[in-house]
Specification:
The chain is 40% helix and 18% strand. With 298 residues, it is α/β, with parallel strands linked by helices. The longest helix is centred in the last third of the chain and has 23 residues. The protein has one domain: Spore Coat Polysaccharide Biosynthesis Protein SpsA, Chain A (Alpha-Beta Complex), CATH 3.90.550.10. The chain contains 11 helices and 9 strands.
Length: 298
């Protein structure tokens, strides 16, 4: 048994792992073609792209049919996190990433991920840097991080951008995936925190992996969704040990200050202007998107 495990580890180290990309979507005709093309253009040697459609009634299905390499299915689901769980269950890759139907991989992103897992077979997960763009693809701001720090994440802020997060198939199975019946908007933050609480090894690659789009057809730019995310994130921070009162406020300040100091020392940059301020002019009271669980009617 031990010899077999050693051989498997050696195989993993000498070859790039197969990567499964899971994309949940619902009425995503405005953006999904660019998302699909961004995966195809990676020219990664061993990948699969699984699209879990929630029953689109616009032109999304027609676009999916244009790409024979896709593994896709369409039908009613319990929201985008449920679709992610279903896609992960169907994935055959060694490593799995979630790419939303309005985000795009940057050039050579999958190669950076594959090489990192090959070089660090002890990693259970990794994440990378992200650039936020508008509907036309113009840069709003970028985030360059230093590494996974559970205390900063649970006391300060979630700086791990979900589309840049990749887990091994085994890790997804052990964590149980996304708790889609408990959270509407923060299942990814919940998973990111559980990785730290439960002692998983999370690496970081200093590469801009994803262009994260803020636009009129997406949830992120919707202030109703942003408000609900804030409420759910506060609940999660309490679950992970953030106290109330002045103690909690001081911990938040310390965690955020620690992140900026680490970024300045290790990456030569810091967020003099918070990302939320830079995104403010792109936010809308209400954007246009579809949801099977009522997110569009918050």
């Amino acid at each position: 048994m031990y010899a077999a495990l050693v051989w498997e580890k050696a195989r993993f180290m000498n070859t790039l792992p197969k990567i499964s990309v899971v994309t949940p979507c619902l009425n995503s005709e405005h953006t999904i073609r660019q998302t699909i093309e961004s995966v195809l253009s990676q020219n990664y040697p061993d990948f699969e792209h699984i699209v879990m459609d929630g029953g689109s009634t616009d032109g999304t299905i027609g676009i999916l049919k244009e790409y024979p390499h896709l593994a896709w299915q369409s039908g009613q689901d319990e929201g985008h996190y449920d679709a992610m769980n279903r896609g992960v269950a169907a994935a055959s890759g060694d490593v799995i990433g979630i790419l939303n139907a309005d985000d795009c991989y940057r050039d050579h992103a999958l190669h950076a991920v594959g090489r990192a897992f090959r070089a660090h077979p002890d990693w259970d997960a990794l994440f990378g840097d992200v650039i936020f763009v508008d509907s036309e693809g113009h840069e709003i701001f970028r985030r360059k991080e230093t590494g996974y720090d559970y205390d900063i994440l649970r006391f300060g802020m979630c700086y791990v951008s979900h589309p840049t997060l990749f887990l091994t198939k085994e890790t997804y199975a052990k964590t149980g995936g996304y708790r889609h019946r408990e959270f509407l908007n923060c299942c990814d933050y919940d998973l990111i925190l559980r990785l730290g609480r439960d002692g998983y090894r999370v690496g970081h690659v200093r590469t801009l992996l994803v262009a994260f789009r803020i636009h009129e057809f997406g949830q992120t730019a919707d202030l109703r969704v942003a408000d609900n995310m804030h409420k759910e994130a506060s609940q999660l921070r309490r679950e992970h040990g953030l106290p109330g009162g002045w103690g909690g406020r001081l911990l938040k300040v310390f965690a955020r200050a620690k992140r900026e100091v680490l970024k300045l020392v290790l990456r030569g940059t810091c967020d003099l202007v918070p990302g939320g301020v830079k995104m403010r002019r792109h936010m809308r009271d209400q954007t246009t998107f579809s949801s099977n669980i009522g997110l569009d009617e918050l």
